[in-house]
Amino acid sequence: MKTLMNTAKAEDGATAIEYGLIAALIAVVIIGAVTAVGNNLSNVFNNVANNLSNAATSS
Questions:
Q1: Alpha-helical segments (H) within 1-59
Q2: Strand, helix or coil at 44?
Q3: pTM passes above 0.85
């Protein structure tokens, strides 16, 4: 009976799984944010390059 009670109280495995799920969720959010910022930054650099090219050809 004592062994059964100790097994029921042991939550190490469940806690590890919860921490793993939290870490995975944080990783997904970070990947999404980096992807969005990267795409926006790429658009900004393309706009700057196009404006410089247009300024150089119109001069």
A1: 2-9, 12-58
A2: helix
A3: no
